[in-house]
Amino acid sequence: MDRPRPLTAAGRCRRIGSAAAALLLVLLASACVEPGGAPPSTEAQPPPAPALPAPEEAETLAALPADEVPAPPVVREPGEDEEAPSAAPDAPPTAARVGLLLPLTGRYASEGETLLRAAQLALFDIADEHFLLLPRDTEGTAKGAERAALALLEDGVDLILGPLFAEGVSAVADHARARNVTVVAFSTDRAVASEGVYLLGHTPRAQIRRVFAHAAAAGHREIALLVPDTRYGVAVLHEAWAAAAASGLSLARARTYAPDASDATEVVRELAEYDRRAQALKDERAALARQNDAAARRRLGRLATLDTLGELPFDALLLADGGARLRQVAPLLPYYDIDPAKIRLLGTGLWEDPATLGEPALAGGWFAGPDPAARRHFEDRYRRIFGEAPGAIATIAYDATALAAALARAGATFEPEAIGNRGGFLGADGLFRFDDEGIAERGLAIFEVAGGAETRIVSPAPARFDTDAGDAGGG
Questions:
Q1: d(Cα 220, Cα 316) in Å, to the nearest integer?
Q2: What integer pLDDT is reported at residue 19 of this predicted model?
Q3: CB 114, CB 394: distance < 8 Å
Q4: Which end of the chain is more exposed for a tag (fewer CB within 10 A), N or C?
Q5: Which segment of 7-11, 124-128, 142-146, 463-467 scores lowest on mean pLDDT?
Q6: Pairing of strands 440-442, 445-451
Q7: CA nearest neighbour of 372 among 452, 460, 271, 308
Q8: How much is the average pLDDT of 90-97?
Q9: Residue of higher predicted confidence among 19 and 329
């Protein structure tokens, strides 16, 4: 395929297709017309760069309201001679060059296209004429990511966004470090975070910390874990131990089931101590029958509707799975008498799917997720411009590109002090910042499954991070 061209906010209009480009140009033109006036010239100086956030404040990266979108800057196509920099003392002498590694061909090309479109949307919302985005195709492989990163480094990029997969991040990291170039990757695998490599993907860490903290605040004390024996499940187990300790919860037990859930029936039955509790009920009924008095008969009547007898050693259960496998496992819980009236089910972001949320066994369960208002605003604008709904991961590329563009407009370099700002940033998925390991912390809301694929917010996402004492309940 042809090598992707560098993108500026205006230059992108020539690459999104005539229909989408027309919509986008109309949006920008209407946004930049003052009441009773004409659109500003594209040769005008860009708006003043926003200041970096103070430690206690969050830099707003969310899409600007329509009446605040800046005029598109001048297009500079590859090969064109650039004019000498403006003599204005506050004009940046050179453009910030930011590479974007995405799977634009191959098995994951559709995901790559969604991410590219989201990045382009951020380019228009936040960037000025001194910001240059250079998309490169990874072909969805580690080797492809390495080749693309080496080409970007030869082009002299100041920052790399992506790639999407952990193997690609590992292939890119050493090359970027050797050139002192920071990487903000989209992977969710915490194992690939390292010096100079940040992960913006939705890792289970933030979700588990948030839902555990909420469960502890609601009075839960003992928690059990039920996860698939997969890389994701292993990551959940690792994060859950630390999150439980931080929240004051005790881990009563942890169980895993096969990746195809073929042993889920046996695993859930053992987790529920079903055989012991069923035998306890049988023994109690036999003892009461031998007594054969009025009190014993009343007690027998109350036991008639039960399948088991006795309490479990946990009052909350983290069921960290999603999709068809979760819908296979979840109904086993009430079947083996894990009573949702006594045992609160907890989940991760994998629950956030209409088919999953419609599973009756999950009703009343809690899971952590991004601020729906922020994401809805992003989704509405994406759909309006590109004519379809964005993929679930699109916000990651938007936030990464917006972060880079905001820092560039503020005159900041892409150093740890700027990217690791403890006040955090506000993006299309709400508040986020990076922890000391370079993994995204997020300001998340707590949702309760209300049945019929509906949810309700039982604890809103925080408006800001607490820079003095942890995450303000946000992950």
A1: 7
A2: 29
A3: yes
A4: N
A5: 7-11
A6: unpaired
A7: 460
A8: 67
A9: 329
Q: Whose structure tokens read 């480009």?
A: 21
Provide the β-strand partners of residue 255.
226
C-alpha dist (Å) from residue 343 to 66, 191, 328, 363: 46, 32, 19, 12
Residue 115 to residue 105: CA distance in whole angstroms:
13
Which residues are paired to 346 by β-bridges?
Answer: 318, 366
pLDDT at 438 over 80: yes
Report d(CA 407, CA 401) in Å as an integer: 10
Provide the whole-model pTM: 0.76
Q: Which position has the higher pLDDT, 204 or 59? A: 204
Tell me what pLDDT residue 471 has: 44
Is the predicted pLDDT of residue 419 greater than 50, yes or no? yes
Q: pLDDT tens for residues 23-37?
A: 222 222 223 322 233
Maximal CA-CA distance, the chain: 101
Q: What distance lies between CA 286 and its chain's CA centroid?
A: 53
190 and 200 Cβ atoms separated by less than 8 Å = no
Determine the distance from the C-alpha atom of residue 398 to the mean position of all C-alpha atoms in its chain, rounded to a whole number.
Answer: 12
Both structure tokens of 326: 């979760």
176 and 183 Cβ atoms separated by less than 8 Å: yes
State the average pLDDT for the chain: 82
Token output for 207: 């979700």
Question: What spatial distance separates the first Cα and last Cα of the chain, rounded to whole Å?
Answer: 41
Q: Can you give the three-state secondary structure of the chain, one letter per residue?
A: CCCCCCECCCHHHHCCCHHHHHHHHHHHHHHCCCCCCCCCCCCCCCCCCCCCCCCCCCEECCCCCHHHCCCCCCCCCCCCCCCCCCCCCCCCCCCEEEEEEECCCCCCHHHHHHHHHHHHHHHHHHCCCCEEEEEEECCCCHHHHHHHHHHHHHCCCCEEECCCCHHHHHHHHHHHHHCCCEEEECCCCHHHCECCEEECCCCHHHHHHHHHHHHHHCCCCEEEEEEECCHHHHHHHHHHHHHHHHHCCEEEEEEEECCCCCCHHHHHHHHCCHHHHHHHHHHHHHHHHHHCCHHHHHHHHHHCCCCCCCCCCCCEEEECCCHHHHHHHCCHHHHCCCCCCCCEEEECHHHCCHHHHCCHHHCCCEEEECCHHHHHHHHHHHHHHHCCCCCCCHHHHHHHHHHHHHHHHCCCCCCHHHHCCCCCEEECCEEEEECCCCEEEECCEEEEEEECCEEEEEECCCCCCCCCCCCCCCC
